[in-house]
Design a protein that fits this description.
The chain has 412 residues and is an alpha/beta fold. It is 35% helix and 24% strand.
């Protein structure tokens, strides 16, 4: 069936649906689908349509009426992890770690804008020309970011980051080659021994996924408080858990609750561990102070291209929130963070742990680091897949006290 004929049939069915629907009555999804099916079969006599094509037309019309139009099958595809809409004519997806353009487009810009309003209204958010940027979490846990014109020059922009129904486990990360068994065992012991661990990496390097995997090593009898911009963590088997999410200001500029506010509140809730999904600004100081005041075993993440770069960024974050001497900031970082794990997305699009570093103190005005593991590239396959391994350095671990206190031998 040609595209023009298909479009004509869909228009005829929609027109017939409008005539058949009584606006005074609420129709269930099943009733709407049944109406669409009847109209498609009655209108398709003049078209050559197989059963599968008819079903596809019915699904497309139902999605345009009751779901998210052409986005619905993309959102329902569990193998797709990211959806990037650059205006009505251009849609990219990330699937199996690869990004490519899909051969679908919105009917027009107005239709894309309608879908955007449907998405944000479901989560009680507002986006318009006066407030053209919105971040939200969908009902299934996916994160959505919307930017409208005139800020976005090439039309409405939507980015949706999907998350799996079940959290990624360390076993799966080992299978995918993100790290090896030895390193996984070491990190498990570090989490159980209550080392404060900070995960850093660039955009799309898998920080949240890795944080979630590590969080599931926490003993199930502890009280955990998670703090995030958009709740994504899925910590399984822990009954005594508090999940908190920040809130943007409303259209009147009121009601904002920041990560910083939530960290301060969490300290009054008798936490044993605090997990901060990501630090971006002045809340870094509150996180460091929490780690330094009896909340060992806390975890967090941040954006950076290397371990040293992350330390510099943490200094900048703290300074953005309080005028503290740089020496005091570095001392705070050195005493708060025990272990830094750096992740990277390599040129073959795989996500790997590329460095694990111990923070051993502060000396001569600098934070002293002790690299424990480093990723070493050995080459690549004919398919351009990088071959390499995360190898132990010759450095011995310095701070073993937490291992001893937890009764864990520790082989360093």
């Amino acid at each position: 069936m040609e595209i023009g004929e298909r479009r004509k049939l869909i228009d005829e069915v929609k027109e017939g649906l409008n005539d058949a629907i009584d606006l005074r009555k609420d129709f269930s999804d099943e009733e709407i689908r049944e109406l669409i099916t009847d109209i498609v079969f009655s209108k398709s006599d003049g078209y050559y349509l197989g059963i599968n094509e008819k079903k596809k037309v019915i699904d497309d019309i139902f999605n345009s009426v009751r779901r998210l139009d052409i986005l619905q099958p993309i959102i329902e595809d569990k193998s797709i992890t990211e959806i990037m809409i650059n205006g009505p004519d251009t849609i990219f997806i990330e699937k199996n770690g690869r990004t490519h353009k899909v051969n679908v487009r919105f009917e027009n810009r107005r239709r894309l804008e309608d879908i955007i309003q449907t998405i944000v209204s479901k989560v009680n958010r507002t986006v318009n020309e006066a407030s053209p940027i919105v971040d939200a979490r969908l009902e299934d846990g996916s994160r959505v970011n919307v930017v409208l014109p005139p800020i976005a020059l090439n039309g409405p922009i939507v980015t949706i980051r999907k998350f799996p129904e079940k959290p990624m486990t360390i076993e799966q990360l080992i299978k995918f080659g993100s790290l090896n068994r030895e390193v996984a065992n070491v990190l498990e012991e570090m989490v159980k021994a209550k080392y404060n661990i900070f995960i850093c990496g660039g955009t799309g390097s898998g920080k949240t996924t890795f944080l979630n995997a590590l969080s599931n090593f926490i003993p199930k009898d502890e009280r955990i408080i998670t703090i995030e911009d958009s709740a994504e963590l899925q910590i399984l088997g822990v009954d005594n858990i508090v999940i908190m999410e920040s809130r943007n200001a409303n259209t009147e500029g009121k009601g904002e609750i920041t990560i910083k506010d939530l960290i301060k509140t969490s300290l009054r809730m008798r936490p044993e561990r605090i997990i901060v999904g990501e630090v971006r600004g002045g809340e870094a100081l509150d996180m460091l102070q929490a780690m330094n005041t009896g909340h060992d075993g806390s975890l967090s993440t941040g954006h950076a291209n290397s371990t040293k770069d992350m330390l510099s960024r943490l200094e900048t974050m703290v300074l953005s929130g309080a005028p503290i001497p740089i020496e005091a900031i570095r001392q705070q970082i050195a005493s708060a963070i025990d272990i830094m794990v750096h992740l990277a997305r390599l040129r073959d699009k795989t996500r790997r742990v590329v460095e694990i570093t111990e923070v051993i103190g502060y000396k001569n005005g600098e934070i002293v680091l002790n690299p424990l593991y480093k990723f070493e590239e050995e080459g690549e396959t004919p398919e351009k897949i990088i071959v390499g391994s995360l190898n132990r350095t010759k450095n011995a671990m310095v701070n073993k006290l937490k291992f001893k206190m937890a009764g864990i031998p520790g082989e360093f």
